[in-house]
Fold:
Amino acid sequence: MMNFQAILDLDKAHIWHPYSAFNADAPVYPVASASGVRIELADGRQLIDGMSSWWCAIHGYNHPALNQALEDQLKKMSHVMFGGLTHAPAAELAELLVTLTPEPLQSVFFADSGSVSVEVAMKMAIQYWNAKGLAAKQTFLTIRNGYHGDTFGAMSVCDPVNGIHSLFNATLAQQYFVDAPRCQFGEACTESDIAPFEEQLQQANGQIAAVILEPVVQGAGGMRFYSADYLRRVRTLCDRYNVLLILDEIATGFGRTGRMFACEHAPVDPDILCVGKALTGGYLSLAATLATLEVSATISNAEPGVFMHGPTFMANPLACAAGVASLKLLMASPWQQAVSQIEQQLEKGLDGCRQYDGVADVRVLGAIGVVELVEPVDMAIVQPMLVDAGVWLRPFGRLLYIMPPYIITPADLQVLITAVTDVVVYLSTRHDASS
Ligand SMILES: *Cc1c(COP(=O)(O)O)cnc(C)c1O
Structure:
């Protein structure tokens, strides 16, 4: 097996990492294996995982039930094309998704990543209105600070500043943006919160195919939590102004916010729903776009009579088998209790961070704990600090955050909380010294 340094040398010579410079000096850590909530580095160090590998690994790594499901499926087939063929893992996963999601969602389109499921959702909305004879409805309305993926359609509805729209200006579709709601989670939505959104809909509904939002929690765009009441108002306005509502639950889906889906906090039913990330428990890349029968039937009953999308690896049987096993595991587990215990421990544990000058805000919802700092985190210093503390956390911008696998024990979660607190104390000391 290749050693730590050999992996690093080849990596540095040839590999791009997410949102990174090529041949960068920023540290990357070779991983040898992962099990439960522990990631083992190639030099033998063990890290407690506080990231769930970007919201995905909700059951932890190397889970016997998920491993077994994949081994069983592997012996049958790892892949067949989905044009004209179907299979049990896809059928079973579609049934589970339809059962778990809001009742009007009945049609499932499997995609290979979250970004693609967002592209698919946007294309569905455009084809829906085209089928209704309203072909001018081809743009989208969203709120700032959103994140919906890295492909061009998805990117066009990401926050224009975080998404660096200026860089892609000539290619990127121009969409409508309003400020993200100021009303916090747990608060009511006031007229002034919703007024800009309604004005935009009123002015441009003839051009708008759909509103697209992350319900309640805006993830990679800033880890902001907003009022579920706002979401309820959005649903009402979408109906009033004849636009569809697309909810992107790629990050929030499958229990992360304390409900199976974050839209249940309102509750609202979307016309189109995107899921991904935790769908396979972090085992394989898979996402899905669910639509109401109204949407799927309207598209299918008008010219060209088909929905115009079809990924090569659509409904990959291995990925679907992992999805089925992951969802069954979730449903059979006391996940609500687990997430609620994590929530309470994060609230209590991170509360102490509020007292430091360098901290702008501390917020917790479900199994998501966020410490927002006043200044951006210096990753060159903080990432090695966290690894030395025996934890895997990946801060970005001004955000230090914890979103652990649901199976984490209170003792391991405490190690994550302590590591975050130590970083906050360290950065505040530096902040004080420099001001
Ligand atoms: C991660 C994410 C996406 C994109 O998913 P990928 O699988 O990375 O393409 C889209 N929307 C939200 C809310 C996400 O968190």
